Every structure is written in C-alpha cells, then in structure tokens.
Amino acid sequence: MVRTICQSAPGFPLCHHDISLQNLFVDDDLNITCVIDWAFSSTVPRAQLLATPGLPHPRDLVLDLSLVSAFRSGFETENRKIGRSIIESNYWKVGQMVSRFMRLVNLDALQDYDHPEALYALVWGAVTPGDDGDDINNLPAILAKRATSHDAFALASELAADDEPESEIRRREKEYFDEVGGKRLALARKVALAAKMNPRFVADGRLWRWADAVMEYDDGAESDGDRQIPRRRVTRSKVVERV
Predict the structure, then answer these.
(1) How many domains does the chain divide into?
(2) Does 150 share its domain with 219?
(3) How far is Cα 151 from Cα 91, in angstroms, rounded to an integer?
(4) Which of these, 7, 44, 95, 119, is most buried using a 10 Å CB contact count?
C-alpha cells in the first residue's frame, strides 16, 4: 500500500500529528500563514501525505466529499507547481485507507470499529452473501470466527495473566457503582449479556440510543412515583435484537 506511493520520490515527509484549529494561523482570506507546535512531529510514509487531515481535531475523520475534494484539489495544484506528475486515483484511495488506519492504530478514535470496517470495504469491496443467505465474508463474521480460534484463546489467556485478582476487580466495580447508582450496573450487565449472546455484537450508535432510552425510562419512572402510566418496556430480548 505504501510502497507504490513512495516510488516517485526518495525520503519521507514531515508530519505534524496535531493539525488542529488551535495550531493554525490564517489571514483575512482564510489562507494558512503559519503552523505552530511542531514538538511531536516526525517523518511518515509518503502515502500519509494523501490522507485528508481532520479538523477541528486530528481524530475527526473528514467524510464531507466537498472538503475531501478541496484538499485534493489544493494538493494537486501545489504538486503541479513543483513539476510533479499527476496523482493517480488509486493513490487517493491509499490516502483514504491511511486516514482510517492511522486513527485505528493511534487509539484516538471515538469509535474504533468503523475504521476496520471501512478498511475492509476499501480493500475487498462489497461483501458476498453466503449460500445460506447470511453474510459469511463480512467483517463481523470474520472477527467472530477468529475470536473462537485457538490463537485467540491462547492470547486471551496470556493477557489475563496480567489482570488484577478477581476480588480486586469486584471491589473496584462495587465502589464505582455505589457512586453512580445501581441502574448503571444493571445496564452494564445487560450489555455484557448481549455481547455474550451475540458473537457479532458491536457497540455502535444503536447501543447508545438504547442505553439513553433505558435511562430515560428509569428516570421517568422515578419522577412519576406511584402513578401508573403505561410505558413501553425495554426488555433483554430487545437489547439482543437491536445490537
């Protein structure tokens, strides 16, 4: 992936790593005149040059096609000024992959799963349904299969060796939920149960909407007191069904 984009020129570009609004100076025409705070800069693979920077914070992935187009247009304009060849479309695809990959490996994403899912689609294209009508080649199916492999169990056992004693974990758990309330403990246990029952469980936006609905229901039940007001019940089966 990186080798192809690096063939056109030697060396490595310098990357800032924190291109945020706080580190950019612009003039009245919104032209960038200065970039500050280079303390943690480093050289990076040339392919990373083609990754659209996220604003206002580097962790923010740019999905607006107009902004991506503006970045690429400006990049190509400056590229032509120094006599470089036209950037091929597959190079931009590599830049898109790098955008996802760097946010994943830097552990700086608000939700990690979106990035390997997008990378999988960029590399392999659309998934192919299995003969039984279920997707067997998509990312959740592959991850679920690998999670039950011998190597996965061996790694889990190795990592568990560094865990704190069960008694200490229980003590801290009790201490935490004594502070935030038993409702959150019940919610956490339901989510853990849903993940256990569904090997393809993903904590995405559906989960957070369900959690908000549960908390809103409980808060409403408390405020209503003894009044009998019909409410839609959010059951354990709904948790599994929705997530």
Answers:
(1) 3
(2) no
(3) 35
(4) 95
